[in-house]
Amino acid sequence: MARKAKQKVVIQTISDKEIDAIHLAIGKMLKERREALNATIDDFAYQVNISRSGLIRIEKGQDLTLRSLLKVVRGLGTTPEELFSAIPHKSSK
């Protein structure tokens, strides 16, 4: 009986530097979209139930939790898929 060759599993990794760059890109896009709606930080933060300081950190690419990201994305009338598709990414090697 012939033995099947094991396939090597290739696991791709991402560096902290790449993650930080993605966070910054997301924050910048979110801020641009909020400003395009002429929404102030205070008003928008209140409407999506995030603290003002929390929204500022998100727009700076800091403190990005999935929960807060989803609140902001929904408040902007977009989807996570649309947001992430706009982020430049490295192709896999």
Automatic annotation (TrEMBL):
Pfam family, one: HTH_3
Domain HTH cro/C1-type: 30-83
Domain of life where this protein originates: Bacteria
GO MF: DNA binding
Signal sequence range: none
Record's protein name: Helix-turn-helix protein
Lineage: Bacteria, Pseudomonadati, Bacteroidota, Chitinophagia, Chitinophagales
